[in-house]
Amino acid sequence: MTSALFPPEGATQAITPESEVLTATGMDTFELLTRLRCSDIDDTTLDAVRITVEKLCCDYSRRPPRELLVESRQWLRRLVDMRWHRLTFAQHRSTLELAGWLALVVGCLEYDHHFVVDPSKFDFYAMDCYRTVGDDRLARELSDEVARVSTGAGHGERWPMRLAEARLTRAVVAARDGDLDHATTLGHRALEAGRRSLPSLLMVSGQLATTLTHRFPTEPATRDYLDALRSVRQRTR
Question: Where are the domains of the chain?
Answer without folding.
Answer: 1-109, 111-237
